[in-house]
Amino acid sequence: MTIFFSVGEPSGDLHGANLIGALRRTSGDAIRFVGFGGPKMAAAGAELHHDLTAHAVMGFLQVVGVIPRFLRLAAEAEDYFREHRPDAVVLVDFPGFNWHIARRAKRHGVPVFYYGTPQLWGWAPWRVRKLRRWVDHALCKLPFEEAWLRERGCNATHVGHPYFDELHGRRLDEIFLAEQRDAPGPLVTLLPGSRTQEVKANLATLLEAARLVRQQAPNARFAVAAFKPAHAERVRAAIAAKGFADGPAPSVHVGRTPELIEAARCCLAVSGSVSLELLHHAKPTAITYRVSWPMHQVQKLFRRVRYITLVNLLTTDELFPKRVGVYDPADPRDAHALMPEYLTWRDPAPSLARHAVEWLTDEPKRDALVRRMHALRDQIGAAGASERAAEYLLRELPGAAASRAA
Known about the structure:
Blueprint: E1 2-7, H1 10-27, E2 32-37, H2 39-43, E3 47-51, H3 60-84, E4 88-92, H4 95-107, E5 112-115, H5 120-123, H6 128-134, E6 137-140, H7 143-150, E7 156-158, H8 163-169, H9 174-182, E8 187-191, H10 196-216, E9 221-226, H11 229-242, E10 251-254, H12 257-263, E11 266-270, H13 274-280, E12 285-290, H14 293-302, H15 310-313, E13 341-344, H16 349-361, H17 363-380, H18 385-396, H19 400-405
Parallel strand pairs: 1-2, 1-4, 2-3, 4-5, 5-6, 6-7, 8-9, 8-11, 9-10, 11-12, 12-13
């Protein structure tokens, strides 16, 4: 049996690798994994045709620049479907490209499973037609997605968020963690994102917020969790250019995100799936995603939900409000939100700093927030999505029973 994966982002690479691991635990070497992915999937045993995670992009202009490359890869995938006809195609996130893969797979009669369906409910509900037409099985990460998709004619099943599988199985570097905990002053961890584009757009904001925090909490110290060495170099250059004459400059670390989150008193982060990791560790966090003014106007036309942070979406009673708007700390409608968030073209550094200072100086308020985070984590943060998705795949694929018996 052969399963073709199409994965184009670092987070999807992680989820794809964990799904491959779950399938291997059940079926041993009876299944061959091929397709597009990243280094984690390769380490899990996938035979990669291309590493798509090296080209993950967001935003209209960035996407336009890589369209020719992605169309060539989609054509290569179709050649593979035609010549080898895998038993299934598994898509993970990355909808802009994966719609092309789904359409080509269906053209050749290959069953399509979408593991971690795109958040169509938040940005582009009309695209559910593509999911209904080209995807046989939608495996949903969030509890409300199954009902939303089923109401629109899709075969959907909630399996849980695969990120929690990684979080529950992760082992922290206790030596590094102890060093951080023993260092003087409360730690504020800055998380500028995993994409170079995100780092470029948001790093200056996070560093300015850190400078403002230090003015009001001079004993605070700061650390930046960089996704890869190239990002760390960019961060160090930005820190040197900005200067932190009033105290030690933020330290910069690669591959230490879990430890820096766990050791932190609070965090400042760029919007993304990291919010689930922050919830797992119950760390008070302010979220930002800074865009240009034109992009801010465009997103207002498409966005159907009030929040960009998954954690906040999981706490709201009104997922699709008539008046969408954005998070406002002074608005009673946002009192339930666990993570203050700022999707904005303006400078959000003062707002981010204000939240961090409050968590550094107001112990009762911080403790109350942590208790609320624990309650949500206990409700939705269980592991097992990879195993449930693997069981679903093996149950639905015609040749799976024979492969398992072999």
